Amino acid sequence: MNTTQIEALIKQMTRMEKIGQMTQITTSFFNVDGAKATGTASRMKDVEQHKWIVGSVLGKLDAKSMLRIQRDYLQHNRLGIPLLFMTDVVHGYKTIFPVPLALSCSWNPDVLRRTARVSAVEAAAAGFQVTFSPMVDLVRDPRWGRVMESFGEDRLLLGQFGAAMVEGYQTDDLQQSDTLAACVKHFAGYGAAEGGKDYNTVDLSPLSLYNDYLPPYQQALQAGARLMMAAFNTLNGVPATANTWLLQHILREQWGFDGTLISDWGAVKELIPHGVAASSADAARLSLQAGIEIEMMTTAYIEALPELCEQHPELEQKLDEAVKHILQLKQELGLFDDPYRGVSEAREQEMILHPNHRHAAREAAVQSMVLLKNQQVLPLNSTQKLALIGPYADNRHLLGPWSVDGDPQHAVTVLEGLQQQGMQVQSLSTDDSHIEEEVLHQAIELIQQSDVILLALGEREEWSGEAGSRAHIGLPHDQLKLLRIAAAAGKPIVVVLFAGRPIELEEVARYADAILLAWFPGTEGGHAVADIVTGRCNPSGRLTMSFPYHSGQIPVHYNHLNTGRPAHLLTQEKRYKTQYLDVPNEALYPFGYGLGYSEFGYGNIDAGTGELSANCPLHVSISVTNHGPYAGCETVQVYIHDRVAEIARPVRELIAYEQIQLNPGETAQVDYTISADMLGYYHTDLQYRADPGEFELIIGPDSRHGSSVTIRLLSNET
Ligand code: GLC
């Protein structure tokens, strides 16, 4: 069906049929087992009479129910317009990969691409055609529960990893039956919610929006994403759902987005509690005028648009634009040619949890884990007697938030992973929050019989994710008590940490000899932990979000501004400088940081003349040596600091990175081409360009260490 045919189809549609296409309900309205109409779904009006004209559904599904629903729907839909099936496949469908914040610590777009590819193959086999992913909200506040869903605090990585997931979901042919259309979210600035409280107010300056928060959404759209989801939050006073500046001026006019714009769950009617709409009719009008084309899980459009269009005929054109995008999406997915998209129970059975998918999930989990500390304790060997103790010792709940279709029963526990690798291990599982004295005594006994103590500690899955905001981001008191008791035994302690956010680790770092951050590693988590602690794999993960000493430091991120009294420059000044009196200024573990089992050494930067211009980039090079003893992967990171600019610029900003695999004793030359464009930023006129002048160029293993040279941009005139 081409554009002309779509426009002809729209002409045949009644106004109510158009409004139906712009409404999304859950699969519970089609009696899918296990899906129930709760919350907003139970408050939706007139759905039963309109369910054969709604344009899309979200929620629980499998191949059998998709085939049934689509068949019934097409029998009732007057014009035979196929139904669209959407879902939240965020880090896997049935084979669950590490949470996105963990995946980002691989610093490898191929890992993100492969995760999305496997997710699409499995979810498409179950009947889905759209996923609400990637989430590319920039985050600087670990109190916010959804940091686990983001790729961290750096806009370059967010954009690259978001784009990689879009490519993995969609490939270059969305008509292929094993693809999913990607929906970028949450537009915009959702990660900057005040106080880290979900759905909360967001106030961002135009420069902060343009330089930090908006680029990742744009980069994900440039990768071809076919949908965008508006965020729950207000942005500078106007809810994103009704924010015409954001949804029309930026998204449609400046960026030329031609895909479909969907609200978040219930967000259209939430304009009423936001205080910008007095009624459902107001909410419908504001959302439609701003450009919301699919109303997710409320019925303001169904309830109010028929009359609103009578009163304001100009709104009819908005309906036609919206329906055109929705029908084009269905056409791009091939649904007019095959509404079932080749779905079959046999293919679903073949694809779900395929061994190749589990292998990919295990590899991704290994590359996502970050070794934060290791004082000659790891890797372990099979002659050592291990005491594995804690809430995650033998726990299958490793999938993390947003693994709605995953099943913990498919997950491999840490104990199973260690046992399968032939380690001598005895385990004692504990509660994550209340560890009874009796259990502590059992722990002491187990510790006395062991050589090395592995404490598998962490957050509960539901303490992060949507609506998972926490003011205290440390470990529960009883887990720290267990740590102190273990420390008293005077034996090596390895802490394996399971979390969906940066955790306060100052006390853990004091007592543990090694800390492996496992995040929520997914279905293959136990195997991946064992792969690393036994030395089968050399850890290579690097943090993409800073770990503060204390939540009182938040927001804490590497790419902060200098201020007029930067503490690191005023070392003689005791008081009057940018600092806390009671905790250090910087993060405990900084952005880009991570250890491995090998030492990597860096040579000096060779920057040639050190000069570049808009037409003549600068080639820089540095040697990196693996001093052993293991083969390993090093992520060489390139940062700049713009010394004098029109606006204050970050003390460090990542502009490039490269991963190199080196054998022990091997040296590699790592080359970069620095272009003027990489040195640019949005100025107060909101135009992007670089300023001629001096830049500090830093190359190193993380955002805190490295060697630097001064380079000079001679001219930004092309
Ligand atoms: C949720 C989330 C959004 C998700 C949607 C559908 O409230 O904010 O990320 O895609 O609803 O489940």
TrEMBL record:
Its EC number is 3.2.1.21. GO terms for molecular function: hydrolase activity. Gene3D superfamilies: Glycoside hydrolase family 3 C-terminal domain, Glycoside hydrolase, family 3, N-terminal domain, Immunoglobulins. Keywords: Glycosidase, Hydrolase, Signal. It is an enzyme of class 3 (hydrolase). SMART domains: Fn3_like. Transmembrane segments: none annotated. It comes from the Bacteria. InterPro entries: Cellulose_Degrad_GH3 (IPR051915), Fn3-like (IPR026891), GH (IPR017853), Glyco_hydro_3_AS (IPR019800), Glyco_hydro_3_C (IPR002772), Glyco_hydro_3_C_sf (IPR036881), Glyco_hydro_3_N (IPR001764), Glyco_hydro_3_N_sf (IPR036962). It catalyses: Hydrolysis of terminal, non-reducing beta-D-glucosyl residues with release of beta-D-glucose. SUPFAM superfamilies: (Trans)glycosidases, Beta-D-glucan exohydrolase, C-terminal domain. Residues 634-703 form the Fibronectin type III-like domain. Belongs to the glycosyl hydrolase 3 family. This is beta-glucosidase.
